[in-house]
Q: What sequence folds into this?
């Protein structure tokens, strides 16, 4: 469970996944080079990159690489930002994102019908489920780009569920995370995540409600930063 893992801040919630081909490692580096914590060009980091030959990268490869990287980021973040006893069955008896949004868990395996779980157990089940998707070679092929026909649908489900973790953290633990000086890490990670999700329409608009004001704020800041860069470029030309 989360509690036993969060007692040691050097641990992550789940094992960090590695990319298994040179091409995917290269794609991951492209995104990370743009989105370096605190100083990166996140808007460019989310776009489908173009190779030296002028061709766009394969969309499924790009989705695959970034999904793994976002999972790793979430695992690291949960292992480092949440203090022991911060998210327990007593503090968070339900998986919520504020008073209006409550999430039930179902995975069609252990929980075939939606059940009410405390937030820590819900997040643990969610991360375990995502991990099982990443480990399934029929979904995330190792040495080929033969992705399944429903790959985009699976990716959307992963992103929808990861978004719920961010929503819970912001609504119920942000003050505690801020007190531990982890707010910059959280904000930077979420900005990268949500801009990528919006770029490829991975989360339905009606599910963004818990963080709609934060998302609008981040988009406004990104827009202003882009204008500032354009003006700076013009003034230096």
A:
């Amino acid at each position: 469970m989360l509690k036993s893992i969060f007692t040691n801040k050097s641990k992550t919630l789940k094992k960090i996944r590695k990319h298994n081909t040179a091409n995917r490692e290269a794609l991951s580096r492209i995104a990370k080079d743009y989105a370096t914590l605190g100083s990166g060009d996140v808007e460019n980091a989310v776009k489908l990159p173009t190779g030296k030959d002028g061709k766009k990268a394969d969309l499924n490869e790009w989705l695959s690489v970034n999904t793994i990287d976002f999972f790793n980021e979430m695992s690291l973040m949960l292992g480092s930002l949440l203090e022991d006893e911060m998210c327990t069955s007593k503090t968070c008896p339900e998986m919520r994102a504020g008073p209006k949004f409550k999430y039930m868990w179902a995975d069609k395996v252990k929980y075939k019908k939606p059940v009410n779980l405390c937030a820590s157990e819900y997040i643990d089940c969610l991360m375990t489920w995502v991990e099982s998707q990443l480990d399934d070679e029929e979904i995330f092929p190792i040495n080929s780009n033969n992705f399944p026909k429903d790959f985009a649908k699976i990716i959307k489900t992963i992103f929808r569920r990861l978004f719920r973790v961010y929503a819970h953290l912001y609504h119920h633990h942000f003050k505690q995370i801020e007190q531990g000086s982890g707010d910059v890490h959280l904000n930077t990670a979420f900005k990268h995540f949500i801009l990528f999700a919006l770029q490829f329409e991975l989360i339905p608009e009606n599910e963004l409600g818990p963080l709609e004001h934060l998302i609008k704020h981040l988009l406004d800041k990104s827009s202003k930063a882009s204008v500032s860069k354009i003006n700076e470029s013009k003034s230096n030309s």
Q: What stands out?
A: The two ends are 56 Å apart (CA to CA).
